[in-house]
Amino acid sequence: MKKIPALLAFSVTFLMSGATPRLLPMTTFNSQIILKLDSAAAPSLLYFGPVVKGDLNQVLDAAPEGENTPAYPVYGNYPEGESALSVTMPDGNMTLDLIRAGEPESVVDNNGNTLTTIPLADRHYPVSVTLNYLAFPKEDVIETWVDITNNGKKPVILDRFESACLPFRSTDAWLTSLYGTWANEGRVNNEKLTPGMKVIQNKDGVRNSHTSHAEVMLSLDGKPSETSGRVIGAALLYGGNYRLRVVTDDHGRHQLFAGIHPDESSWKLMPGETFSTPAVALTYSNTGMGAVSRNFHRWGRQYHLAHGTEVNPILLNSWEGVYFNIDEPKMAAMMQDIADMGGELFVMDDGWFGQRDDDSSSLGDWEVDTRKLPHGIKGLTDEARKRGVKFGIWVEPEMTNSNARLYKEHPDWVIKAANRDIVEGRGGTQLVLDLANPKVQDFIVNMVDTLLTNNPEIAYVKWDANAPVMQHGSQYLSADRQSEMSIRYHRGLTSVMERIRAKHPDVAIQACASGGGRANYGILDNFDEFWVSDNTDAFQRLGAQWGLSYFFPAVAMGSHISAVPNHTTFRVVPLKFRCDVAMTGRLGMEIQPRDMTQQERDFCKGAIEAYKGFRDVVQLGDLYRLVSPFDNRGVVSLMYVSPAKDKSVFYWFRTNNDYSAPLVTRVPMEGLDPDASYKVTEINAIDLKPLPYEGKVFTGRFLIDNGLEMRPSHDLEWGEKVDYCSRILLLEKQ
Ligand code: DGJ
Questions:
Q1: What is the pLDDT of residues 374-411, one digit of tens each?
Q2: Of the residues 258, 276, 303, which one is the last residue of a structural domain?
Q3: Active-site residue 464, yes or no?
Q4: Using CA positions, which residue lies closest to atom 2 of ligand 1?
Q5: What is the largest CA-CA distance in the chain?
Q6: Which residues pair with 121 in a beta bridge?
Q7: How far is the CA of 515 from the centre of ligand 1 (A)?
Q8: What is the pLDDT of residue 597?
Q9: Is residue 340 part of a domain?
Q10: pLDDT tens digits, one per residue of 651-675
Q11: What CA–CA distance (Å, rounded) separates 521 from 300?
């Protein structure tokens, strides 16, 4: 369910203060979780904050007397409070009474990450729970999860089994979360926590990040700020249904609960079986949300994204260019076009298999449509090789259509409730395969493996998923296991991805799910990136990519230049603005280049060349969000700085052409080395009149204190007047 780095068993270093009760710290370079361990009681979580200097007992002495903040509250004595774990014992007893069942242990892996485990057990029943804390010192992230084991002889029912509970205190705490829908992903919501319970949840079954996100920030010092205040970041690493709850009382005490959604999902835990929950990643900063994001980005790239520490290629995807109208000459022409513009990869999207001329057929029938591609995939990889670009392909392996041969041969492979008619989705015929079924898992692994083995030049797979679970029912699982369908689906998917990854470790895989339905660290372990949204309107993308950047690094965000009028919003945004926005993420194109003028192609060629010169800074550097699209200030601004602070890319976008509103033309920069000097070069400049500071050198201190004046020109499109305006500045240390 989660990836734990191989741990070396050599070290059982374990630091605890000697006093009773004892304190157990889990420590990163800048943050610390401290548990309080009483001799026979379950631990309390006493502290999450900066590393405590001096005697740890300061934390204990300063804590409110008699306060009980269980590290993992269970449904048991005093059941009026919220709990993370609820179990029904074989005799019907619905309570747990956990006590410590041994000494905590701590092991360090070869990256210097420390896993601390604390064994607990029920006082009477043979059920044990292990609390796990995996600290990543350099990234300032601590992952936590639990393992629940049935040591008895009869099954136990897990009714609720959340991953973690984090207690925190603040009388002015704010929750930052993401919400949205298809084509409107990554919207930011900030709200003050008031007494009661705030619930964030997703029950789509297949995708889980359109309407809500399993990641949040908690600002403890009032309204969220990018640069100040204590902020906790929390991300649940799970690709399926989830629920996050923040419980707030009338005295500024809060608890964040996060875990798999318990609705209709009870789990029968067999004798000897252990259920491991997904992890929750926690990070802390006392300098605002920006630092929390940068921690998540570093940790995500290092430990959760496939190939996360390498830059991703510049690609052309065929979808918005030709949709289902794929054929060999068109694909070859697109390959030639992206090669001519300096791109590195061409991705053939939906429509290449079965008889797939629209979205109503052929999923599951993964043979090449030779009407469209007479020389098969090999013909295309040959064409790509000739043109010096790599080749990628779209698949949607978790799905079928009711008119597909696959469904006719295996009607029992789809998700369907007993004695109910099938419920069909996209195209009026789409069905979800039952990934709880090992035969379905084998079919998918075999299909993808065959495709990649027969076509070893496929370098990239766009893995799509365009339907939710539309009816609860597994035709594979027994009657008493129906409630496990959703969890077993996602375990099945993880296993499928791991098997494919093991055989094809170098292939890049994009998580796409009707746009941005799979932006979650629980699924991204096996993916290189995700598709942010089917809405490619540059103006809208400023918002979506901004929101997602709270938790995900730019290397993971597919960000494409598309045609105007935009196919979703019908907005007409100038090409420069479209390029500039796409260059804030993993740059690509989603357009028919043959519909572009030579001038436009030349412009994109220049943009691609420039991007190659600094994409490592964008994709692998540190992000500083400067002016938010959600503050409606008429301007959006952000910048990336290389880890060595020797190179930076600054972006400025005018989003409101309103002469009655004062424009933010000067944005103080961040993240630079104040003592260094940086030369300024404008990127994608097309107003033919250099900015006054072009080629000039400024100190980091000056740029941080003052910024540079932006020229909000209307003359940006080859002498034409336009209403949008954007600037990119490259800053290079001298
Ligand atoms: C939904 C994706 O989000 C699109 O990019 C495209 O791949 C279509 N599916 C293809 O059917």
A1: 999 999 999 999 999 999 999 999 999 999 999 999 99
A2: 303
A3: yes
A4: 514
A5: 81
A6: 99, 128
A7: 7
A8: 97
A9: no
A10: 999 999 888 878 899 999 999 999 9
A11: 8
Identify the pLDDT of residue 85: 98
The atom number, within ligand 1, closest to the CA of 514 reads 3
Helix pair 575-582, 598-620: axis angle to 10 deg? 20
Q: Is the pLDDT of residue 599 over 60?
A: yes
- pLDDT single digits (tens) 267-299: 999 999 999 999 999 999 999 999 999 999 999
- Burial (Cβ within 10 Å: 0-12, 13-18, ≥19) of residue 181: exposed
Residue 280's CATH number: 2.70.98.60
**279 found inside a domain:** yes
Number of structural domains found in the chain: 2
> What does the pLDDT look like over 670-694, one tens digit per residue?
999 999 999 999 999 988 889 999 9
Residue 7 has a pLDDT of 47
Q: Which residue is catalytic, options 122, 434, 534, 622?
A: 534
Q: Which of 303, 338, 368 is the last residue of a domain?
A: 303
Angle at 518 between CA 607 and CA 477, to 5 degrees: 155
Give residue 168's domain range: 8-303
For residue 17, pLDDT beyond 60: no
Question: Which among 315, 464, 533 is the best mutation to test ligand 1's pocket, defined by most ligand atoms within 8 Å of the CB?
Answer: 464
Q: At 680, which CATH number? A: 2.60.40.1180
Give the gyration radius of the chain's Cα atoms: 26
Secondary structure in 3-state letters for 686-717:
CCCCCCCCCCCEEEHHHHHHHCCECCCCCCCE
Tokens of 279: 């992890």
Q: How confident is the model at residue 16 (pLDDT cuts 50, 70, 90)?
A: low
Query: What is the separation of C-alpha 335 from the centre of its chain, rounded to a whole number of angstroms?
Result: 29
State which ligand 1 atom lies nearest to the alpha carbon of 394. Answer: 7
Q: What is the distance in angstroms between the CA of the first residue and the CA of the last residue of the chain?
A: 47
Residues in the chain: 734
Ligand 1 centroid, distance to 305 Cα (angstroms) = 21
Distance separating alpha carbons of residues 203 and 241, to the nearest angstrom: 5
Q: Has 534 been annotated as catalytic?
A: yes
Indicate the pLDDT class of residue 596, thresholds 50, 70 and 90: very high
Sequence-ordered alpha helix ranges (H) in 462-584: 485-503, 521-524, 538-548, 575-582
